[in-house]
Specification:
The complex is a heterotetramer, with two copies of chain A and two copies of chain B. Chain A has two helices and five strands. By secondary structure, chain A is α+β, with helices and mostly antiparallel strands. A five-stranded mixed sheet of chain A has the order 2-1-5-3-4. In chain B, the strands form two sheets. In chain B, strands 3, 4, 6, 8 and 9 form a five-stranded antiparallel sheet that branches. Chain B is elongated, with a radius of gyration of 16 Å. The chains are: A alpha+beta, B alpha+beta. Chains in contact: A-B, B-C, C-D. At the C-D interface, strand 4, helix 2, helix 3, strand 8 and helix 4 of C face helix 1 of D. Strand 2 of chain B pairs antiparallel with strand 2 of chain C.
Chain lengths: 85, 141, 141, 85
């Protein structure tokens, strides 16, 4: 049997603190989008329930939308409000 | 040229990097850690970044400025722990005339703040700490 | 702080002079001798001034900027012979926020060019020389 | 007999070249204004005839108008178009 397809989730700054993790491997199936990945995090990590409904997100280091598809091997990132400068 | 750095920023080096015999005007901006924020005393900041995305975004912003104006631009953002007065972000833009140097420098610092995935955690004079959320801070400025 | 100088300008020193723990944004402008002007190759410039009036005017412009925005400002203008790339004028403005730092820096360079009694004589690549008259030059920029 | 009242005239840059002098002592009488000082220069210094009708001027290091009065001991300056920066 194949190992299930996976994506990597990165969490930063306050979101990493809330979730208690800054990097999580998640299983993905056909039709998985960023929103479903976020929902999966909430189900797996109690602290992730405190993440907002619609955080900034990225796929493979590029800004993305919650409705964008996630493919095996993708790196999905959830970004708190930016505070550089 | 755009990059992240764990070491102190040198805005003079950025200005030198964009200088040239045809570029008579150089505008720089240096953002340093202030001793106050939203009415509270600040003693230290810690910057963290989503490294690959942040470097790519800084590079994209520099390239946008160089397409939009006839300028050369360099920009850098510091990461790690910074004390009051330490430079957090530096931008230099040079062109033949001052108009484009000012415009490009201002554009780059605005876009850096708006688009680069960097976060900062403030340690206050009273010993507490907090992540900075500019979406919450604007009202108290 | 505003002054004339017979020696090379140091914009970093001006920026350091206006820095402070509450001033998180510093904008500088450095104007250097370009290798071309109005379509001709330039090899050297010589700046002269009406010294007492020029120093007083630079001081007045700095004071106006510091009254108009919550900033500290330093400005200096070079006199004498300059080669291509040498700094002719330098301005630094620091405030709590970048808006006032940019606005004050821009104001000061514009007013310096408009009001300070300084003149420049250009030596061109073809060996000829001429006094610069900005009222005649604007049309050819 | 008193020595006549005098003012000092300063010329700069191209104006000094045209006039062949950068500092001239001029006699002044009651009612002398900057315009009359300029006319006096034209009469005394052949090259000064090439100065414009209404150059920038200053009295005692402060910008002035051609109609401003000139008093004994004043320093009157005629300024070519400014070219700093």
């Amino acid at each position: 049997m194949d190992t299930p397809a996976r994506a990597t989730v990165l969490l930063f700054a306050r979101y990493a603190e809330l979730a208690g993790a800054d990097r999580v491997e998640v299983p993905i199936g056909p039709g998985t989008d960023v929103r479903r990945v976020l929902q999966g995090l909430r189900d797996e990590l109690p602290g992730a329930a405190a993440l907002p409904e619609a955080p900034l997100c990225a796929i493979n280091h590029q800004q993305a939308r919650l409705s964008d598809a996630v493919r095996p091997g993708d790196i999905v990132a959830f970004l708190p409000p930016l505070a550089g400068g | 040229m755009g990059f992240l750095s764990e070491h102190p920023l040198d805005v003079g080096a950025l200005a030198a990097a964009v200088a040239g015999p045809g570029r008579g005007g150089t505008c720089t901006f240096l953002g340093a850690v202030r001793d106050h924020h939203a009415g509270r005393g600040v003693v230290e900041l810690e910057y963290s970044a989503y490294g690959p995305m942040a470097e790519a975004t800084i590079g994209a912003i520099v390239a946008e400025a160089e397409r939009r104006w006839p300028v050369r631009v360099a920009a850098a953002h510091r990461l790690g722990r910074l004390a009051v007065g330490d430079a957090a972000v530096a931008v230099a833009a040079a062109g033949a005339h001052r108009e484009e140097a000012f415009a490009a420098c201002r554009f780059v610092i605005e876009e850096l703040k708006r688009r680069v995935p960097i976060w900062k955690r403030e340690r206050f004079a009273d010993g507490t700490e907090a992540w900075v959320d500019p979406t919450a801070v604007e009202a108290s400025r």
